């Protein structure tokens, strides 16, 4: 009897061991390229089509192609409802072409703010699966995208044919890859500074992530977590910041001020934007701290407000030696940024504080985020957006590596 039981237990445990492996497939990998002219990041979508990464985008859209299969999604279909969950402000949306009884969607250009009516089509996302170290094999993932006319591409990087929305909605790319490929509903972003640093990486399924400088290390094991929030009617990812510190001094900006409007992550702004009631005390504190270390200010270069003579700044492996910016996050974790994330070289001899004051916004206006964390501050952080657990995992890469160190060469054999 005991022996039989033993066999049964063994068989069951073998089954449970085998089961996840057969049903969960490998994560899906794409290189993420930074465009120098616009500072936007793009990913290849399929043969020759490159889409701008918009983590706040609720849809995938691209220029209409003649080979797009016409797909008549009914107005009442789940897909149509999902695609219209987040109406674009200022875009008159009805969600339905009543004459032809097909779904209408409203692709949106995150740079110009323009939107246009379009239709939903079946398409394919061609990428590689990955073991977290190298590409493994090419896959063609079924997807639904909106198709728009060429006019909507204005101000996107040269060669971009649309936008890959990575928000938490049902028709954004993460949910679509998760359901077609049976990977976890999370994605990892590691944005590179571009140019000589090479391409960064996105992994749908969330990881693991290994980089060539330390091939045995899976950086997703080092993630720290903070809750992700969304706001009613807004697909963007918010985090809760309790306070901001410069070096070890708290900047006089209250939690209530930061909570009014919140703190949102955004790949479509190149540098972090601060609402005036956050920027002014922050810039004041920074200026005072820099004065104490005898850094000399030079004429500022737009859009930046505080610029310094680089020969009066010490340079280290963590960037210029300036007061460390620390965001204290909900859950007690800290997001720290040294000179590499807070100072940008704008021209020979001049480096500026890479935090910018929002224009045309009133101090304390709770309809506007207190802080929009932009691309420059997100680069070279491993960011894992977990849509199931509604949390953001983050990890600052050590100085000897960066997001350009993923090995995109397939293992032979
Ligand atoms: C998949 O990886 C191989 C090997 O690196 C590469 O040649 C190919 O372009 C990749 N495919 C896609 C769609 O990225
Ligand atoms: C800044 O300059 C003053 C006057 O020259 C000097 O006393 C002080 O030690 C300097 N501070 C630093 C941090 O170098
Ligand atoms: C920067 O500082 C160096 C050394 O103090 C000085 O020679 C140079 O003229 C300064 N540059 C500017 C733009 O002020
Ligand atoms: C990248 O991966 C390939 C295949 O495993 C390997 O041959 C090559 O040495 C790796 N390159 C680096 C820089 O680690």
TrEMBL record:
Origin superkingdom: Eukaryota
Record's protein name: Uncharacterized protein
Species this protein is from: Avena sativa (Oat)
